[in-house]
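FORM 12-B: Structure-to-Sequence Request
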């Protein structure tokens, strides 16, 4: 299989919602640079019409005349980048005898709620225990998985599952995976109920992190507590 097909196949394997949905890969994605710049042009035109509908004279406002283009560019290159970019295959390495939990805490998360198109900001904590063969992956790959699924439309519950499933896939044969997302939603603080500071915590766990005695789960949450000055997350 050539490199490009391998990338696409790998990407398809970790996607868990229908193509085209706000929290999925775009129709026809991942996109080439040319396809992205055509998309920015189309989206900028449509955003100009959106501002027209809001009776905003953006064409004659020196601060806003480039705004449709800026907004379109921000969606394609940053806010929704995970819908348009391909995830590279992830190589795993022997753990050289390490059979404990691997935890990465405080991975920064920027996302956008699918319901209101307002930002979601927070952190993701990920833990996993490698399988029999002891295969582990490069730590930064966990950050890249968070970026891939975070940089889309999202509801936090599904985002937590998507990250969990992708980590589980790239650490195939693992003994368990746990993902906790702690985030604040701009749609709660700036509109509707307008409550500042409320955060949402979601956890998806499998394997040893779900077992009855839950020692692995306890170790994971203790590790997060250490990081928060002893306070419960
Ligand atoms: Zn929302």
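FORM 12-B RESPONSE
SEQUENCE OUT:
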């Amino acid at each position: 299989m050539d490199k490009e097909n391998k990338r696409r196949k790998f990407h398809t394997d970790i996607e868990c919602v229908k193509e085209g949905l706000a929290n999925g890969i775009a129709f026809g994605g991942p996109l080439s640079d040319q396809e992205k710049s055509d998309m920015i042009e189309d989206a900028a035109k449509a955003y100009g019409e959106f501002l027209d509908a809001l009776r905003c004279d953006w064409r004659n406002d020196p601060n806003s005349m480039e705004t449709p283009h800026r907004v379109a560019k921000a969606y394609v290159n940053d806010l929704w980048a995970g819908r348009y970019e391909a995830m590279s295959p992830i190589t795993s390495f022997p753990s050289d005898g390490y059979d404990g939990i691997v935890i990465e805490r405080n991975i920064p998360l920027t996302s956008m709620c699918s319901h209101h198109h307002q930002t979601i900001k927070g952190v993701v904590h990920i833990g996993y225990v490698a399988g029999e063969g002891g295969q582990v992956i490069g730590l930064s790959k966990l950050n890249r998985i968070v970026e891939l699924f975070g940089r889309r439309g999202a509801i936090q519950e599904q985002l937590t599952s998507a990250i969990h499933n992708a980590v589980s896939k790239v650490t195939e044969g693992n003994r368990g995976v746990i993902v906790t997302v702690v985030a604040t939603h701009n749609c709660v603080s700036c509109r509707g109920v307008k409550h500042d500071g409320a955060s949402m915590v979601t956890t998806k766990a499998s394997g040893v992190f779900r077992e009855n005695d839950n020692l692995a789960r306890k170790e994971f949450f203790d590790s997060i507590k250490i990081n928060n000055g002893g306070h419960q997350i």
